[in-house]
Amino acid sequence: MPDRAPDRADQTTTDTGTRSGSSTGTATVDPPAGGAPEATAPVPLGEAAPGPAYPRHWEADIVASDGRIVHLRPIQPSDADALLAFHQLLSDRTRYLRYFGPYPRIPPRDLERFVTVDHHKRVAFIALLGDEIIAVGRYEGLSDPDRPDAPVTSAEVAFVVRDDHQGRGLGSILLEHLAAAARENGLDRFEAEVLVENHAMVRVFREAGYQVRRAFAEGVLHLEFDIDPTERSLAVRDSREQAAEARSVANVLNPTSVAVIGASTDPSKIGHAVLSNLLRANFTGPVYPVNPDARSVRGVRAYASVTDIPDPVDLAVVAIPAAGIDEVMDSCLEKGVKALVVVSSGFADAGGHGVSAERKLVAEARAHGMRVIGPNALGVANLADEVRLNASLAPDLPPRGRVGFFSQSGALGTAILATAKSRGLGLSTFVSAGNRADVSGNDLLQFWQTDPATDVVLLYLETFGNPRKFGRLARRLARTKPVVAVKSGRHAAPERLRESAVPIDDASVRALFEQSGVIRVETIAQLFDTALLLAYQPLPKGRRVAVVGNSTALNVLVTDALRDEGMETAGDPVDVGAAASPDEFAAAVGRALEADGAAEADSIVVVFVPPIATPGAEYARVLRETANSGADKPVAAVFLAMEGVPDELAVPLPDGTPGPGSVPSYASPERAVQALSRVARYAAWREMPVGEFVEPDGIDVDRARAVIERFGVHTDPDRTADGAGDAATRTLTDDEAVELLGCFGIPVTVFRRVRGSQAAEAAAEELGYPIALKAVGDRWRHRTDLVGVRLDLGSAAAVRRAFADLERVTGKDEVYVQRMAPKGTSCVLEVAEDPSFGSLLSFGISGMATQLLDDRAFRVVPLSTEDAAELIRAPRAAPLLTGYRGSEPADLAALEDLALRVGAMAEALPELRSLALDPVLASTEGAFVTGARVVLGPPPTRDDHGPRRLG
Asked: Which UniProt keywords apply (predicted)?
């Protein structure tokens, strides 16, 4: 093995441990006869010259399986003392499993080797809690002894976790990050040796999702596995990430004890309000006011500091000015608090120094394993009977229900909760994240995915932190639980959030939500309109709607609204008349629910206007009973003067709150129909095939990367978040673009670029008639008047005349000569750079009207087969591709394949800043690219790639 000292034997490492030779950086001096290695003073590595700088993107905060955070970064020479302290805290059993024998101390030369790595062939990560190392992982490349100059492609891997932190999934986390670093450095395989009795470490490798090959000899397992991500390894990673991040949110929402830091005796202070709300909600655990100037607050004994509280504290609500946050943080860290809810303002919301204070707050909290809600948050609530947590500034909560609500706005949170209560919408949990410095909507999506108390998710979003991750999580969650979102700031993000927000165009938001199955609404009122239907009524199986009412005028309004929303009417509206009795009214609704044939409906809209001196309560009661007669179709009511879920329309649960089967009522027919339409679109999305993420045949990413390297565009791993760098963007030449597109199986209809009439004639003869002549220069390309293009030229004479025309128009003697593609509908397929996603794919039909109306469809990369199919069919002009008015239909499968190839190109090459295939001629014979423009440049950061990390 490389660099092995002659007096060293094979040793081991583990989580509790894997053996590897000295090439892993874990070798030790053989102990002298009768004892352990000689104890000597360590080399003063902290004073040594620094080693090579490590890639900064390797440093990350990670959520462990218990929901607490650990910080991961490459090891440095200055970590020598901390590594010695870490080793001393390992038990004899862990040392034995790691080193296959006693190893009580690390000798100086081993210590120097352990902390001095090159971050390429030799890589080591440490997991930190505060300043203490709690886990170490490393790999060292293995050279081929027969080919010492050959590139290193395999490495030995090893790691060890401190005894008191084992069982937190740190071994799996280290393996993920080591494998990612190894792949980045060109390695493709890991090897390890493990004592057969080391079941924990064997399980780490076995459950990582890789295909592990084993060999057994003398009580030692030799393991080898390829480290390229597999479908199973990615699924394992995502599953562990979901479980860990869900647990971290559960730590916030299910505390066994709460401290209110800044609990005031002054009723006008926010600390007093939070404490009062906790007590009023009858939180099931102990509540500890923290106030150095009071013996008690609201009759509850107060403590001068959180460290004075005699029992453990899970959650601390911080309600003191931002200037005092450092002292609070110190005491919370000392106390071992699991999570903070910071309702105080004066951080990033105040700008200037507040931004730095907020970053420091989160950095210190994460370094010690804590999650943070806020700052500037309204707070959190969990309405479960076994918790009854209201750690917020909202005095009154809605009834208990099965809807989870995340609000990024603290100021709006109180109004949201009040509206939910007034409209009868029950909540399971509520989180207002304020500045969203740590815990974000993505974390809540992870929690609600497996939360048995939540069936519907509502989001009020102002900005995105990691949109790519949001899309991945929302798509997964929306398959089983509806997600409804308001995205404010469509035209301008709030200034206070721009520092931490990722800028995102509204077209990108629309594509993200559509692709992920998120029901997008524009207002808070629409949010509740949609949520009420989802919370209490079943999903419709289609878009056919029956209308029953006692007012012809309102029935007509409902019918108009249905047509406006693209819904269908099931038969004619039924008007029972103003004099109908409750029984007659109920019978008409029942017939609509049970109808079949042409009148069969997937959902019902019921309209009722109380006649003069006729109370509507009895009509509402019979409607509720009829709607719950077993038809399993959603019913939306328009009972004038009844908004939300009034008692008469509610099916009460044992605690009196509305339950499944309750009928929501809307103030107008239009609002009822709009809510029903949104729910119907969501139900249709959920029934669609999931789609597969496949790579079309004939794609060669390695060749494409080599081509980009040859073009002089390089990836900088430590690039800035906005993709800015020293290298400028570069538009590829025609030949370069054709070469790069060819790596992804995207041919461009053959062409030549020539000067002069004779050269044009020669090129036409070479390519074969008919041909097209095109002017050179962006000014003449893609004009709808085709002034720079001459088509269907079938002879040398036609070429000469066309050349003369173009030369006269453009003043240039240079043209493109291109073989004519089969005639078809002209389309445009583009990749646009989005700072948050890296790439956004758009598709549209060419033409002035299309451009004027911006009739394009968008999808976020990566693209599934179903995404590609939807993209091609989404533009309003898409019927032109399917045989509109007797025209020949285009080969949609060929267009979908082209979209998948472009999507694969955008996903595989972050340097792809923009791409335009224009025009693409879609015909019965296929999809033919006749023009392409490619721009490369420094890639933007993509935080959703690679191993788990908080981002």
From this structure: ATP-binding, Nucleotide-binding
3 state DSSP class of 592: helix
Q: Please say if the pLDDT value at position 402 is more than 90.
A: yes
* DSSP-derived pairing of the beta strands 789-793 and 154-161: unpaired
pLDDT at 468 over 90: no
Distances (CA, A) of 225 to 10, 146, 155, 179, 186: 20, 22, 10, 11, 15
- Edge-to-edge strand list for the sheet holding 400-407: 389-392, 379-382, 427-432, 400-407, 456-461, 483-487, 519-521
Selection from 84, 74, 82 nearest residue 104 by Cα: 84
Give every CB contact of residue 339 below 8 A, 6+ residues apart in sequence: 248, 251, 252, 255, 314, 315, 316, 370, 371, 372, 373
Best CA proximity match to 774, nearest among 839, 819, 824: 819
Neighbour count for residue 933 (Cβ, 10 Å): 17
Cβ atoms 826, 847 nearer than 8 A: yes
Q: Would the CA dihedral through 551, 557, 563, 565 be positive or negative?
A: negative
> What was the pLDDT predicted at 489?
67
Residue whose tokens read 């009829």: 626
Buried b (16+ CB within 10 A) or exposed e, 332-349: bbebebbbbbbbbbbbbb
Two structure tokens written together for 786: 């085709």
Q: What is the pLDDT of residues 633-642, one digit of tens each?
A: 999 999 988 8
Per-residue H/E/C for 685-720 = HHHCCCCCCCCCCCCCHHHHHHHHHHHCCCCCCCCC
- Please report which residue ranges of 54-198 form alpha helices under DSSP H: 80-88, 92-99, 108-115, 170-184
With cut-offs at 50, 70 and 90, classify the pLDDT of residue 160.
Answer: very high
Nearest C-alpha neighbor of 538 from the set 627, 650, 423, 666: 627
One-letter identity of residue 131: D
Q: What share of the chain is helix, strand, coil (3-state, %, to 5)?
A: 35, 25, 40
Quote the pLDDT of residue 42. 38
In DSSP terms, 64 is beta-bridged to none
pLDDT value, residue 112: 93
Tens of pLDDT, residue by residue over 409-430, are 877 888 899 999 999 999 999 9
Task: Please tell me the predicted confidence (pLDDT) of residue 466.
Answer: 82
pLDDT per residue as tens digits for the range 35-70: 333 333 333 444 444 556 888 889 999 999 999 999
Q: How many other C-beta atoms are found inside a 10 Å radius of the C-beta of residue 945? A: 13
* Alpha helix positions (H), 768-891: 796-810, 848-853, 865-873
pTM reported for the whole predicted model: 0.87
Distance (Å, whole) CA 252 – CA 247: 9
Neighbouring residues of 308: CB distance < 8 A, sequence distance ≥ 6: none
3-class DSSP state of 318: strand
Q: Which residues pair with 856 in a beta bridge?
A: 844
Choice between 713 and 711, residue whose per-residue pLDDT is larger = 711
* Residue 931 to residues 322, 747, 748, 780, Cα–Cα distance (Å): 57, 10, 7, 13
> Which of the four pLDDT bands, split at 50, 70 and 90, describes residue 785?
low
932 in helix, strand or coil?
strand
pLDDT tens readout for residues 498-542: 444 455 678 788 888 999 999 999 999 999 999 999 999 999 999
Query: Quick one: DSSP state of residue 516?
Result: H
Three-state DSSP class for residue 226? strand
The tens digit of pLDDT for each residue in 223-239 reads 999 999 888 999 999 99
**For residues 922 and 894, is the Cβ–Cβ distance under 8 A?**
yes
The answer to whether 371 touches 404, Cβ cutoff 8 Å, is no
How far is the first Cα of the chain from the last one, in angstroms, to the nearest whole number? 38
Using pLDDT thresholds of 50, 70 and 90, give the confidence band for residue 353.
Answer: confident
